Amino acid sequence: MLRNFSVLGLLCVVTSGAARGSCANCCAKLASSLPGKVFSPDSAAYEASLASYWALQEQLITPSCIVSPTTAIDVSTALKIIVPDSCKFAVRGGGHGTAVGVANIEDGITIDLRGIDTIVLSEDKEQVAVGGAATLGDVYTYLAQYGVSIPGARAAGIGVGGSTLGGGFGYFAPSQGLAADSVAEYEVVLANGDIITANQQSNSDLWRALKGGGSNFGIVTKLTFNTFPLGEVWAGDVFFSVSNETVQSTATALYNFASNPDYDENASVFVLYAYQNAPVVLVEYTYTAPVVDAPVFDEFEAVPGQLLNTTAVTTIPTLSASSQAQSPSGFEQITFAMTFVNDEQMILEAYNIMIAASSKLTGVAGAAIGLTLRPIVPSMIRPDDVLGLEVPAQGLIQTIGSVQFNLTADYSLMNNVADQMLSDLEAAAKRLGVYNRYIDMNHAKTEQKVLEGYGSQNYELLKAVAGKYDPKGVFQNLMPGGFKLLWVEFYILAPFDSSDH
Ligand SMILES: Cc1cc2nc3c(=O)[nH]c(=O)nc-3n(C[C@H](O)[C@H](O)[C@H](O)COP(=O)(O)OP(=O)(O)OC[C@H]3O[C@@H](n4cnc5c(N)ncnc54)[C@H](O)[C@@H]3O)c2cc1C
């Protein structure tokens, strides 16, 4: 590997007393139990799986083998081999995560869930059961035929499983809540291979923990969502020529939009302040009904300097595909997330922090940095999830940092750029008294303490649920990718024996 992946650089062999196996052994056992579904580094299927990750740094990680289950039983079979042999593993859904090693593992086993992608709509169209690695584009397209949808994340290639386990802010969050809030039931394969369902009546503690708790409890093979009726929408991007006036006007418009006491729940926007050879200001609008130029966007539409306006009546599948096309794969990507209480001064500081960081990009091939500012408004909040979001009347601004570049050789430099932006944002928010503890898991940087940001009550709940359903800490220790609870007793891995299965 080209980079030091700290914990991911650990050997595949995990010791709990004596060494308990190796990845080569695990791969051989998997190949014999799941014939035709285990791929080694010399195979085309292995190469194709790696090439399909969105971020280059994930494509460059080379597992010992890749397992491609197509059913929950396959996943169970795989865990019953991997876990007792203490092999390190990663779980891959849609492959759009950016935290290093989030869904792939050097010298370990990568479980590529993409074969688990069925989509089944109930007869009354009120629920849809979706395979753990179906993509949002496929789900939106399938459901659009029936005039319904689910409140998932934006880009078509994103995995439903990964994005929903992290919360999932999307087009419909103001009216429907987050993706996780619409999940009525999860099918989960636990560390010991048991396949269970979690809903409000059965295993309800796990059901709740999965609504934002990430990959700390098991491998999710099916998510059953409540649907809602949907027809056409109005949406698109507006690009502006950048001037002090544009920046000031977008900041004022964003503040007023998010703090509007009569917030229109069909409407959502984000403002992107970016730098790619030059500063960029972009506003993305979505109105979840075919209403052109709804009055709620008036203040944004009055911002001077419009260069290009792509807004139109469209459909969610089209919008989602276009969102994906605007974010091509194969680049090095670093993202981070922070949240602040809606405040115009802080919005302007965010722009200035991004501009200050742009001075470090000279000579970096393909360098682009950006801060996406998205309102979190009170109507998005539901009681069942574990994110611990408390939204004041003026709203919160979720801030997503992105740093993109071409070459792995620039990783260290660009990682410093990301770290600097994040610490400057946090410092500014604290100075202005608008810092909020919430960190969006779906865009967090590897080392950000996402789960602690849910508040101590939710954090304790997550630890208790993980301790109950994964008492030996398999998803903490053997599966290092993702945002972990990592409480200290789980560092000491108890030995496995046949009674575990
Ligand atoms: C272009 C682009 C646009 C985006 N837009 C949005 C957006 O609008 N809203 C939003 O909320 N996020 C958005 N995201 C972020 C995205 O939601 C996260 O990156 C998410 O983690 C991706 O899930 P995945 O399954 O595709 O990724 P992966 O990298 O495959 O998985 C991410 C994590 O989830 C785990 N995981 C995945 N599936 C399962 C499963 N079935 N069971 C257990 N663990 C699983 C993996 O182990 C890994 O830890 C965007 C990302 C990109 C690249």
UniProtKB/TrEMBL annotation:
Alphabetic keyword roster? FAD, Flavoprotein, Oxidoreductase, Signal
Q: Which PROSITE patterns match?
A: FAD_PCMH
Which residues are in the FAD-binding PCMH-type domain? 59-230
UniProt key word Flavoprotein? yes
- Matching Gene3D superfamilies: 3.30.465.10
Could you cite one Gene Ontology molecular function of this protein?
Answer: FAD binding
Q: Reply yes or no: does the keyword Oxidoreductase apply.
A: yes
Q: Which domain of life is it from?
A: Eukaryota
Signal peptide segment: 1-19
Q: What would be one Pfam family of this protein?
A: FAD_binding_4
Q: Name the PANTHER family for this protein.
A: BINDING OXIDOREDUCTASE, PUTATIVE (AFU_ORTHOLOGUE AFUA_1G17690)-RELATED (PTHR42973), FAD-BINDING PCMH-TYPE DOMAIN-CONTAINING PROTEIN-RELATED (PTHR42973:SF22)
Annotated family? Belongs to the oxygen-dependent FAD-linked oxidoreductase family.
Name of the molecule in the record: FAD-binding PCMH-type domain-containing protein
Q: Which organism is it from?
A: Neoarthrinium moseri
